[in-house]
Specification:
The complex is a heterotrimer of chains A (about 110), B (about 260) and C (about 160).
Chain A lengths: L3 E4 L5 E2 L3 E8 L21 E8 L2 E8 L8 E7 L4 E9 L3 E9 L1 E2 L1
Parallel strand pairs in A: 2-9
Antiparallel strand pairs in A: 1-3, 3-6, 4-5, 4-7, 7-8
Chain B lengths: L1 H15 L15 H4 L2 H8 L6 H12 L10 H5 L2 H4 L9 E3 L4 E3 L1 H12 L10 H12 L15 H11 L10 H5 L6 E2 L2 E2 L10 E3 L4 E3 L1 H11 L10 H13 L10 E2 L1
Parallel strand pairs in B: 5-7
Antiparallel strand pairs in B: 1-2, 3-4, 5-6
Helix pairs in contact in B: 4-8, 7-8, 9-12
Chain C lengths: L7 H4 L3 H17 L6 H12 L5 E2 L2 E5 L2 E2 L5 E7 L9 E8 L6 E7 L6 E7 L5 E9 L4 E10 L8
Parallel strand pairs in C: 1-9, 3-9
Antiparallel strand pairs in C: 2-4, 4-7, 5-6, 5-8, 8-9
The chains are: A mainly beta (about 110), B mainly alpha (about 260), C alpha+beta (about 160).
Chain lengths: ~110, ~260, ~160
């Protein structure tokens, strides 16, 4: 089970506000270009895709390459429509999959 | 109240430790945080952004989890981490009566695991041990590094000071030469810090991972092309003991981010 | 035309020439740098835009001009364009010049974003240019590029 964190602003969110969502997950994002001390290959092991679902739709997604740093950090915006869960799904090499959900409270 | 405590602590530290001509004067002391660039500072300041806080999150989960069937969790003995661990990291390494020598925080956690939890100790630099170290160190955030006048630690502290001033490696450099005499100057593209252990365990960007002070010290020794002391060795604990005294009064900022 | 030095030259490939050619080819293959070249980045951008040349503008990259460590460089990309149904930024792609691979990330947006503004952290293997390309719903492409100088930490594990 990976360690991940999702940040939804704690201040009052009104319907229609543009809210910044942040997400970070512990992952080495092994590029596949590093070598061991004896010259052996360290295979690529990265998160390839992140998807964010809110209010019944995928509101955001992105594709990562090895140039994304370890413990990948993301921030983007979404319009607050109604109170409900915001789910992040990270998928990647070696069958990696992690879901983290936080509730966005929206006042009318 | 806090500045007064810091001044008293500093006074104690100075009384305990003879001030060498090349020691950094108190008013010139700068932590690694103060010497790094604004963007890395921003990464550390924001708890959400700080990758070391992921390790703390892991530590929080480990704190309340029984390590094995029928064994006590950390919480089982220590209860709430925020109350029981306040100020602990700021006064380590401490004296361990059982082994009659100084013990660092990692060593103490390992000792708890074997002697009080009855499980195998997690290896140094393992994610588990670092997570617990990070969690405990966080509880000293903002607190001044404690100067301890514990006479049982005096001999070890002096050995640490001697190691700090001893030349090592093919480059034949001592810690003091870089970190007392040449701090602030450029080494490659980087500024030499003063070597205050205020932020450990740190997320070192170079490692792309969280690591301990011992790992960093081993890097320093590799840097001067010396054979590094083994993890957990008495020399590394003695150096840490001296470094904490040398930095007494400075605020802890663990778990920190460093380049 | 002068006579060949020996009759063998007429019928068999010159062994010395073959060996020399092989050695040169081998050297060329061996010294190919393990990093993307600026034209790799151009090629990757063209692949993203289906051959179109992005116009500079609308896109703004915010990234430190000098970083202490290339392992975790914060990069922000904002696109000055509405996010309305039928008229919005559909994708933002980030590229680099000198890492082993030219692509960094592609962000897929919808009008639900409200604003085209993304932040992430990337690796920079060395000092280089970073380019961001935005695709709009009308099929046009816009870009911005920044140069970043990367310094390296001292006293590492190697």
């Amino acid at each position: 089970m990976a360690t991940a964190n999702v940040l939804i602003p704690r201040s009052v969110i009104r319907k229609g506000d543009i809210v910044t969502l942040k997400a970070i997950i512990a992952h080495p994002m092994e590029t596949g270009f590093r070598r061991t001390e004896t010259g052996g290959e360290i295979p690529r092991n990265i998160i390839r895709h992140v998807s964010c679902h809110y209010d019944g739709v995928e509101v955001f997604s992105c594709d990562f390459h090895p140039s994304i740093s370890a413990n990948p950090f993301l921030a983007f915006t979404t319009i607050a429509t109604k109170t409900g869960p915001v789910s992040f799904i990270w998928t990647g090499d070696n069958g990696f999959r992690h879901v983290e959900t936080a509730i966005m409270n929206v006042t009318d | 109240m806090r500045p007064l405590v810091s001044i008293v602590m500093l006074g104690l530290a100075m009384a305990v430790l003879p001030l060498h001509a090349q020691d950094i004067p108190a008013h010139d002391r700068l932590s690694g945080f103060e010497m790094m660039g604004a963007d890395v500072q921003a990464m550390q300041r924001d708890d959400f952004s700080n990758p070391a806080m992921l390790s703390v999150r892991e530590g929080e989960q480990l704190w309340s989890r029984a390590p094995a069937q029928g064994k006590k969790s950390c919480q089982g003995c220590h209860h709430d981490v925020a109350t029981s661990m306040t100020g602990v990291a700021a006064r380590y390494p401490a004296f361990d009566a059982g082994s009659n020598r100084p013990i660092d925080l990692a060593g103490r956690i390992q000792q708890c695991q074997t002697e009080r939890q009855g499980v195998q100790a997690a290896p140094r630099e393992s994610a588990l041990l670092l997570a617990l170290q990070a969690l405990v160190a966080l509880q000293s955030r903002g607190m001044p590094i404690a100067a301890t006048a514990d006479p049982r630690l005096a001999a070890a502290r002096e050995r640490g000071q001697a190691l700090f001033n001893q030349r090592f490696g093919q480059l034949n450099l001592s810690c003091a030469q870089c970190h007392n005499q040449n701090w602030g100057k450029s080494l490659g593209g980087t500024r030499i810090p003063q070597g205050h252990p205020t932020g450990y365990p740190i997320f070192r960007m170079e490692w792309q991972a969280v690591g301990s002070l011992q790992r960093r010290l081993r890097n320093c020794l590799t840097g001067v092309r010396a054979e590094p002391f083994a993890p957990g060795s008495p020399e590394l604990i003695e150096i840490e003991l001296y470094l904490m005294q040398r930095s007494a009064g400075m605020a802890m900022d663990a778990p920190a981010v460093r380049p | 035309m002068s006579q060949p030095i020996s009759r063998r030259c007429e019928t068999e490939p010159d062994r010395r020439a073959v060996i020399l050619a092989g050695a040169v080819l081998g050297t060329l293959l061996a010294v190919r740098p393990a990093q993307a070249m600026p034209d790799d980045m151009e090629r990757a951008i063209r692949a993203f835009t289906d051959g179109a040349v992005p116009k500079p503008g609308k896109v703004a990259i915010e990234i430190a001009p000098l970083v202490e460590n290339g392992n975790a460089v914060s990069i922000e990309v904002a696109v000055d364009h509405p996010m309305l149904p039928g008229n919005f930024v559909t994708d933002i792609a980030i590229f680099n010049e000198k890492n082993p691979l030219p692509g960094v990330a592609v962000f897929h947006l919808t009008p639900r974003a409200g604003r085209a503004h993304v932040i992430t952290r990337m690796r920079l293997a060395t000092s280089q240019h970073v380019t961001a390309v935005a695709r709009l719903s009308d099929g046009s492409f816009w870009s911005d590029a920044r140069e970043v100088i990367v310094t390296i930490a001292a006293c590492t594990e190697e």
